[in-house]
Amino acid sequence: MIYSRLLYTEHEQPHNDDGEGAYTIFSTQQLFGADCVPLGDMSVQKFAVLWEGQPDTRVIDLIEQSIMLTILSPVKLLNASKGTLVVVHDSKLVGENYKLFCLVWEKIAAGVMYDEWTVLFVRDTGAGLGLVGGRIFREFARGILDSNEIGIVEFTPDMFLFKNEWAPENIFGPPPGEEPEAEPERTQHAPGLFDEDLDSWRESAAGLKPVL
Question: Domain segments of the chain: what residues?
Answer without folding.
Answer: 8-155
